[in-house]
Amino acid sequence: MKTMVDFNLEKLVRPNILKLGAYQSARETLSDKDAILLDANENPFPFGYNRYPDPLQRELKKKIGELKNISPENIFLGNGSDEIIDLLIRAFCSPGEDSILINTPTYGMYEVCANINNVNIIKVELDGKFQLDTPQVLEKCKQTKIIFICSPNNPTGNLVNKNSILEILYQFDGILVIDEAYIDFANDPGFISDISNFPNLIVLQTFSKARAMAGIRLGMGFMNKDLVKVLNKIKYPYNISFLNQNAALKAIESKNTDSGIKEITKQRKWLYEQLSKLSIVQTIWPSDANFLLVKFQNHQEIFEFLKKEGITVRDRSKEPKCEGCLRITIGKSLENLMLITVLKHLDKADNKILIYKNHV
Question: Could you give phi then psi for residue 101, rounded to 5 degrees?
């Protein structure tokens, strides 16, 4: 069996973060629900939201732990996954000195958060199939604190080869973050079960996609409990509101996620088939997510035309290997039908122009 390289958390954490005396709410150690609360300068009159939320989200973490088959002490919750990404960079990367590594094209917030924190960004392009260039990653990550891998990847939609990720995990002694925001749409278990084997592995998931709760901004980080402690030191005391914790608890109890995922994957297949019939479509990449990356002829013209028709898609044409590409989120059946109807109108117009040119 392979053995991974030595992982030394204290060497990775910024020295000032190691020494940091974190702000601590008295509620973090409170177990008595009927206690008289005179600690936080709140308004004592119960108008519904007069109390601060649990700073450690204990009830919610317990429910998520049961759902994901992982201990609550291995869970960190953020105000969206973006907060967790930002906290990781702040915890491990000294401004102006350290770097992160990303595999382009990928989710843009890794780069944005690094730039905000004045942290260098090492970029390794994905190969022609949008898979990792593993030798390049291993070569360039030697001075890197954090590697971010998005799987299924955004904007390409594909799962990243698991063996490639494992090869990096066995050789990399920094923090490896696997962003699984779209994992529920893929026929794949993801990496949560590997947390116990790799102390430097962090898996990100979210309530925004499959659970249809983008509005509550709840990201989940699954990791070694010592990594959770580091992030708890630097997060804002009450980063997940009372309203959002309750909304997430209700979503877990409702258990309605599966039907939504099945309908989205069904619509994804239908949309792929319909787009394949259009002459203005050059390439559609297979997707394990809730969107399709599509290369169009005259993509800018199509993008603007769709906007005028009240349909918003995402232009990803400036990303590496995504020239001429639009990213299309899978909508409801009627929305997808309207998109295809509009594109068919464009397709016919484009064909008329081609016929005209051929006869001139």
Answer: -120, 130
The bridge status of strand 291-296 relative to strand 314-315 is unpaired
d(CA 173, CA 4): 8
């990550």: which residue's tokens? 141
Closest-CA residue to 84 (of 196, 195, 236, 194):
236
The verdict on domain 9-254 having CATH code 3.40.640.10 is: yes
3-class SS of residue 122: strand
The residue among 129, 84, 82 whose CA lies nearest residue 103 is: 129
Contact criterion met (CB below 8 Å) for 291 and 184: no
Q: What is the pTM of this model?
A: 0.93
CA dihedral (227, 229, 232, 234) in degrees, to 10, reads: -70
What are the pLDDT digits (tens) for 33-74? 788 988 889 899 988 899 999 999 999 999 999 999 999 999
- Matching CATH number, 257-359, of 3.40.50.300, 3.30.70.3270, 3.90.1150.10, 1.20.58.100: 3.90.1150.10
